[in-house]
Amino acid sequence: MSCSTVLFSLFLISPCGEGGSGDISKAVEAAVANPQRPAEDIEKDANRKPAEVLSFFDIKPGMTVLDLFSGGGYYTEMLNSVVGEDGHVIAHTNEAYIPFSGEIYQKRNVYGRRAHTETIIAEADDLVLEENSLDAALMVLTWHDFLYEDMENGWNAIDETLLMHKLCKAMKPGAVLGLIDHVANSGGDPAQVAKDLHRIDPQVVRDTFAKSCFKLKAEADFLHNDTDDHTLVMYDKSIRGKTDRFVFKFVRK
Question: What's the pTM?
Fold first, then answer.
């Protein structure tokens, strides 16, 4: 399949063959179509495009995948299905995230939907990961939260450098780190923008990862929304769930 026949539009930094053809695997299709998925999740699919996301990040059966700050578990459940019985998913969260995850967080284990998933509740600075163990990691709508501290709401400061070091040690060479976040306009203090709007300038992320063990391999625009002018907090009712989002695919060098 050529680059011109991809299923979704990509801004590829690498050649088409390396960046992904856009094919959606049967394992990903089955995970998204799983009839046991909660209705609350399925309602979000149109805006989140999980089949495209999981395919773009090359999630496959048998992998060990970290879902960092997994929130309500929207992606965790599908990851669990894709990796299958030969794979393993680590669903990470912290105490401050759980109240924002909603009732759906408590329903995930019904009917054994997460049989291949391990849950870890820990602050990012205390997170322990086995060295050279991860085939992939997802950070969905969370990197901006690493930039600020909000003790009033129980959000501890995160040592971004320490977390990056842990991920570099835990991920195998060539492993994919998939990152999605709400787009912020350039300019201003990134920490203040993150705290006020829960957004981040994509260039801030590029610059941070350029200093790490990860290389930006490709980026995609299938979560782009040109009606979002990036000035509203992502919780605003007029834009919540429909923010303009960037999708970065990093690989461990």
Answer: 0.89
